[in-house]
Q: What sequence folds into this?
């Protein structure tokens, strides 16, 4: 036994660094195998296995001591405070998505062993993105998660829109992957390494960054720009969000953004700190464009999912502001905002997933007419989610924005902060429109598009709402966690 | 024992409890009245426990909230806020009582909104941690917008969204400015804090002061509203239900002027001196413009709304006179405007409940059918004009006295505004109240009910009380105003105000 450990050690294998990933892989395999031998109506048992797997993964992630970071597999994977926090957040998001699936109006059409297994695998990939300390490893994680999500987006086989979403996501995603890989290649060509720590040393000591390196960095930003749906690489977002099954959309909006930003944060803060002036300017422009375009396009949307898609683009813009700032407060802002944003989006999409007429033209804003009084709790929650997205206190969304803009002001980017807050005023208009439909419009006669909410969905809504309020009025613990996670990256 | 937090959160707790209180409209309104009444009585105790000679905050409660940022739950009362807190709890109770009959649908949510709004407003006046203040400043928008948007008139959705966006647009820039002030303070002292009294002492460069003042001033100017940022006000006032208008005019607008006194004047003295002529100019333009526009309004509520623009201009004229009489006058004028305009909206609401119209031309000769209503209306009108012996006179006199010393041309223009206000108010009163009864529908109007007496009488008592014996009211803010003026080197206390 001890010999085996020593052998693993000499090969760089250390399972404690990738414990959560292994747990998820195991759960996915169990789900797939079980489905071969044991068929049952409904997916309750699959759901339970998935939840157990996520629980174990989160537990294993928490066992890592943030003060004693581990790197393994020849410095390609690191288990530190940052990846630990992100992994736990990812497990939470996936668990909530599972619960949402169990209450989904079109549950019958999507629920299968493959669905749960793919979600777990996507989460696995995202975890690797968060913990990868080497560009190649981050790329691998990104691919694992992306390919799973391409399939998930098209999971409603009979729906042309779902299939279209899948295909579109796949083609554009493949392009983005190409850019990313080419960027990595150029970085390697310029520096001779893909390891982030080595890159850090290289960029810290280089007088003037070679053009090749900056070109590689720019291509990396293009690749991530696609994944994070930042302008001008955002085109796919509304169509894919609109066409994919709603729980999958929620998962993409929440988890994919968390993982993407985690990876980009690590790459930029660690690998490319020395050339901040280079990518900072590019990101400044991208952040400004992303916020503004996302918000302005969202103003005119009539379909709920498209509106939320454009709002997701705008939120990516706010997060980029924090990346540009690059200060401690901005770093805390990234994590805080990601949590707030994920919770809020999961909640909002959970309500959308309750509403039935997803098939023909999709759910319209007008379907919410009078819902606030017919279903008081549901209306109240939807209003809460909208106010959180708009960043109005006392919600988590407000504190997230507060940290991000504080970071920007701290770093001297007052122009960007002002642009950001003006954007959040613009966004209030379309979020408020939902509230107007909920409470201030006459009841449109006709079929209530709502189906009864099953208990998993009620649980989803309760968890997200409590989270939003809790992180809105009692931010201390999460801020401390975020600070401890982000500080080692900045030093 | 300290009960300030109780005053602050009792209405919110009431609002949450309303969600689970069983029963119908009757229960809801009595419950809401009970909660707001209890809050008012508690806040009344603040008045008696308050030490008018002490400097700084009293009843202070402080807890760490977000420790890493130096953000604290910090509330207290001083001379600037005491009367405004009382005004808030008083008018909230009156507003709830006034909506007993006019609101019959969705009473649960309606009274919950009113109570939540009360906590929001109290928080703005009590907080002295900038972050905490900002939270309340924003939170308060939600219940107010819902009140306008759900229970308002025909164009209620438009008015609600406009109200929300205007206020929000102003306040987000203030958020950036708040962050900047705090970071400047950290640079100077090394400690990160949002505590207002620590930030007062921050040395801020002249250029930075200009920008920061501009950001704060914009937020407050929109709230007041100072000309030319007033366009949301007529819409919001006209569309809001009566109680909403009363709260909006009575309390919400004061947040802007209070903000100038609490934040701008002590923190950015150089910028204040630089911008004073501009703000004074806008204030007197507002006084004249508001009065002229009010004069031609065919709608009673709109007339009162524009008169608010004019009257709030007086408050600003007083504050930016930057002397003792001016600030004291501005202070007392805030209370006066809250009472008189609140009363006017209540009266307009009462007549609207009976006739479902607010067109001035629809009325005439009401003195014959509703004598009590007419007497109440007359007292309120005269108070709004500033007749000696009623509250309006005290405030306007002090404001003009203050402005005359430091900003003479503005004082002269402002005084013309007093004449104009007599013109539009009395003309309106004549058209509505005097003459023959011209419309058949008006003959059968019933005079005020006991409940409406109960709504109006307390307000009228205060109107007369402040008019005859303003000393106790002026006394509360003397010390706080003196503290502000220390920054401007004019510490001598004027004799007139005593």
A:
């Amino acid at each position: 036994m001890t010999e085996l450990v020593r052998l693993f050690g000499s090969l760089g294998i250390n399972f404690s660094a990738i414990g959560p990933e292994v747990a998820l892989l195991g759960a996915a395999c169990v789900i797939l195998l079980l489905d071969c031998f044991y068929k049952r109506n409904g997916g309750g048992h699959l759901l339970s296995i998935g939840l157990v797997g996520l629980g174990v993964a989160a537990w294993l992630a928490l066992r890592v001591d943030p003060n004693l970071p581990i790197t393994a597999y020849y410095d390609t994977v690191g288990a530190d405070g940052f990846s630990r926090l992100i992994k736990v957040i990812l497990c939470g998001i996936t668990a909530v998505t599972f619960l949402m699936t169990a209450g989904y109006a079109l549950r019958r059409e999507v629920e299968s062993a493959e669905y749960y297994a793919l979600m777990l695998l996507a989460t696995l990939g995202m975890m690797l993105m968060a913990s990868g300390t080497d560009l190649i490893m981050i790329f691998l994680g990104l691919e694992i998660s992306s390919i799973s999500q391409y399939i998930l987006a098209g999971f409603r086989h009979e729906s042309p829109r779902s299939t279209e979403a899948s295909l579109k996501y796949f083609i554009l995603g493949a392009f983005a992957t190409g850019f990313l890989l080419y960027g990595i290649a150029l970085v390697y060509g310029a520096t001779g390494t893909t390891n982030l720590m080595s890159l850090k040393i290289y960029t810290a000591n280089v007088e003037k960054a070679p053009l090749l390196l900056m070109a590689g960095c720019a291509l990396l930003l293009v690749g991530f720009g696609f994944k994070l749906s930042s302008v001008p690489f955002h085109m796919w977002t509304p169509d894919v969000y609109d066409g994919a099954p709603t729980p999958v959309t929620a998962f993409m909006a929440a988890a994919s953004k968390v993982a993407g930003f985690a990876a980009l944060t690590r790459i930029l803060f660690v690998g490319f700190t020395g050339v901040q002036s280079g990518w900072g300017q590019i990101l400044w422009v991208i952040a400004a464009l992303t916020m503004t375009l996302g918000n302005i396009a969202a103003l005119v949307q009539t379909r709920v999912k498209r509106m939320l898609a454009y709002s997701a683009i705008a939120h990516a813009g706010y997060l980029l502001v924090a990346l540009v700032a690059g200060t401690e407060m901005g770093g805390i802002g990234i994590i805080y905002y990601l949590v707030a944003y994920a919770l809020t989006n999961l909640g909002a999409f959970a309500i959308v997933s309750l509403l039935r007429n997803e098939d023909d033209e999709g759910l319209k804003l007008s379907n919410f007419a009078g819902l606030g009084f017919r279903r008081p709790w549901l209306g109240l929650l939807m209003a809460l989610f909208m106010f959180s997205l708009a960043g109005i206190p006392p919600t988590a969304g407000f504190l997230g924005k507060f940290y991000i803009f504080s970071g920007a002001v701290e770093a001297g980017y007052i122009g960007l902060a002002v642009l950001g807050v003006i954007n959040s005023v613009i966004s209030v208009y379309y979020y408020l429109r939902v509230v107007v439909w909920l409470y201030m419009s006459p009841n449109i006669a006709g079929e209530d598009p709502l189906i009864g909410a099953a208990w998993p969905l009620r649980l989803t809504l309760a968890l997200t709402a409590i989270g939003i309020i809790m992180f809105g009025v009692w931010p201390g613990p999460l801020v401390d966690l975020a600070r401890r996670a982000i500080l080692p990256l900045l030093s | 024992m300290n009960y300030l937090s109780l005053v602050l959160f009792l209405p919110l707790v009431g609002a949450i409890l309303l969600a689970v209180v069983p029963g119908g409209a009757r229960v809801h309104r009595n419950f809401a009245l009970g909660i707001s009444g209890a809050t008012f009585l508690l806040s009344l105790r603040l008045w008696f426990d308050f030490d008018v000679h002490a400097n700084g905050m009293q009843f202070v409660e402080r807890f760490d909230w977000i420790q890493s940022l130096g953000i604290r739950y910090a509330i207290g009362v001083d001379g600037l806020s005491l009367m405004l807190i009382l005004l808030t709890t008083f008018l909230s109770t009156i507003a709830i009582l006034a909506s007993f009959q006019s609101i019959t649908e969705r009473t649960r949510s309606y009274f919950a909104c009113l109570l939540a709004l009360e906590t929001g407003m109290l928080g703005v006046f009590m907080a002295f941690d900038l972050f905490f203040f900002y939270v309340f400043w924003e939170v308060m928008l939600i219940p107010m917008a819902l009140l306008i948007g759900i229970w308002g008139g025909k164009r209620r959705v438009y008015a609600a969204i406009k109200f929300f966006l205007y206020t929000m647009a102003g306040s987000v820039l203030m958020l950036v400015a708040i962050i900047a002030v705090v970071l400047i303070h950290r640079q100077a002292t090394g400690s990160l804090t949002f505590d207002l009294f620590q930030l007062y002492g921050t040395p801020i460069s002249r250029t930075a002061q200009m920008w920061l003042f501009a950001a704060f001033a914009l937020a407050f100017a929109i709230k007041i509203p100072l000309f030319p940022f007033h366009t949301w006000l007529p819409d919001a006032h006209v569309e809001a239900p009566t109680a909403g208008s009363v709260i909006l005019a009575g309390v919400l607008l004061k947040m802007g002027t209070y903000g100038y006194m609490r934040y701008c004047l002590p923190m950015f003295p150089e910028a204040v001196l630089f911008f004073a002529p501009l703000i004074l100019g806008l204030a007197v333009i507002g006084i004249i413009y508001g009065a002229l526009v009010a004069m031609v309004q065919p709608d009673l509520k709109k007339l009162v709304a524009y008169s608010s623009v004019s009257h709030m201009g007086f408050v600003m004229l007083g504050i930016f006179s930057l002397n003792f009489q001016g600030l004291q006058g501005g202070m007392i004028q805030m209370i006066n405007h809250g009472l008189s305009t609140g009363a006017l909206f209540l009266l307009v609401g009462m007549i609207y409940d009976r006739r479902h119209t607010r067109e001035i031309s629809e009325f005439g000769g009401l003195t014959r059918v509703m004598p009590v209503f007419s007497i109440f209306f007359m007292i309120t009108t005269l108070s709004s004009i500033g007749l000696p012996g009623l509250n309006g006179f005290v405030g306007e006199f002090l404001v003009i006295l203050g402005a005359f010393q430091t900003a003479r041309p503005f004082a002269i223009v402002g005084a013309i505004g007093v004449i104009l206000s007599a013109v539009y108010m009395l003309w309106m009163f004549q058209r509505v109240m005097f003459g023959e009864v011209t419309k058949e529908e008006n003959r059968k109007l019933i005079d005020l009910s006991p409940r409406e007496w109960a709504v109006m009488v307390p307000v009228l008592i205060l109107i007369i009380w402040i008019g005859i014996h303003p000393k106790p009211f002026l006394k509360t803010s003397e010390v706080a105003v003196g503290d502000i003026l220390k920054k401007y080197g004019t510490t001598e206390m004027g004799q007139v105000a005593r």
